[in-house]
Amino acid sequence: MGNGKATLIFTFFFGIPYLCAQLMIGIAYNALVLHADSIWRTAVGAIVGATIIYFAKIPLERPLRILGKYTTIQFIHLAVRFFMLQEAKLWKIILNYLLDLTVAFAAIDLVRVLFPTPEAHAFIIGTPFGWVLALMVVSLCIGAYMDLDAMSLVPTMKKMRNL
Fold first, then answer.
1. Exposure pattern of 36-66 as b/e (b: 16+ CB <10 Å)?
2. What pLDDT does 102 receive?
3. Is the pTM of this model over 0.90?
4. Which domain holds residue 56?
5. 88 Cβ contact partners less than 8 Å away, ≥ 6 residues apart
6. Could you give the 3-state DSSP secondary structure of residue 8?
7. How many CB atoms within 10 Å of residue 5?
8. Does residue 155 have a pLDDT over 70?
9. Is 56 within 8 Å of 21 (Cβ atoms)?
């Protein structure tokens, strides 16, 4: 797999879904909590969102590690190493969590600023959430279509013949 293809798979399979998940946290929190304009309440939402994202990253480590082997692009290697949390040192886990916390806080605040009125709160639970979810699904489908077999945990017949 070439660097260009690996970059596209990384973008569609991990980058865009990560940002969509953070936006979904912002939309869901602002839809559920009408008083999210308090910094304290936004921080609580960001902590919950960052914790959810942290536990969602752990199953993605194997495909990320495999994707990191296919590319020589420095950014992808650094991102893959940064998101490997299963056997990580405490400082790396804390930095990863702080990144998720910061992005979740920004997503909650961004949605609050974009949709400030009570009518907007009624609107955001439907349309934007659905569009972000649709973007995430389409992005995952594109990434999976490009070469999910290379990141599969179960070897295909072609791979088994090569062993």
1. beeeeebeebbeebbeebeeebeebbebbee
2. 93
3. no
4. 3-162
5. 96
6. helix
7. 14
8. no
9. yes
